[in-house]
Amino acid sequence: MEKMRLRACALIIKDGAILLIEYENDNDNGVHNNLPAGGVESGATFVEAVVREAKEEACVDVEVYSSPTARSCGSPFVIKGLFN
């Protein structure tokens, strides 16, 4: 049986613009864009993971205003970016 990996993504919107991280695509020498995201580490919560990923990947501090539960996995929750 394969082990499930949980992933947390931050959807950060400011002035109508969505924050995306640009990555180079080694396969076709192009680029692709992703939301700040990453795996939920063992023992961490979704909230901790999304705050960490926003900081690590986008250098953005965020506050979480509502959080998901285990039963609402995959449902959005509200974060507020603290950035200029």
From TrEMBL:
Nudix hydrolase domain span: 6-64
Pfam family, any one: NUDIX
Source species, domain of life: Bacteria
InterPro entries, sorted: NUDIX_hydrolase-like_dom_sf, NUDIX_hydrolase_dom
Name by which UniProt lists this protein: NUDIX domain-containing protein
Organism the protein comes from: Paenibacillus plantarum
